[in-house]
Amino acid sequence: MTLATELVTQPYRLIRSCSIRTTAAAAVQAVQRIVVAIKHRRELAHFAELDDRMLADIGLRRSDLDAARCGPLLQDPMHILDQCRIRRDPLR
User: How many domains would you assign to the chain?
Assistant: First the structure.
């Protein structure tokens, strides 16, 4: 049975399977974003161990780390750090 024939004879079945696939794909992407955010929060803890001079070498300040740490739990803190760095020095 071709896709066109299936659309005509069983449109609800095809739509339901597409929506299940779409929902499953969205759920997988959400879980992946959460895992990445957790991983980056761990990396943020390593940045906090650096002294201010070392942070300045990579274009960060201690206040940037605080802002990223205080952000929403499931938001990627590296995105917040990038925003802070770009706001301060857009050419970097």
Answer: 1
CB 81 within 8 A of CB 68: yes
Residue 65 pLDDT level (bands cut at 50, 70, 90): very high
**Global model pTM greater than 0.70:** no
pLDDT at 7: 46
Which residue do the tokens 């696939």 mark?
21
Sequence-ordered alpha helix ranges (H) in 3-76: 3-9, 11-48, 52-57, 62-69
Distance separating alpha carbons of residues 23 and 30, to the nearest angstrom:
11
Q: Which domain holds residue 57?
A: 3-88
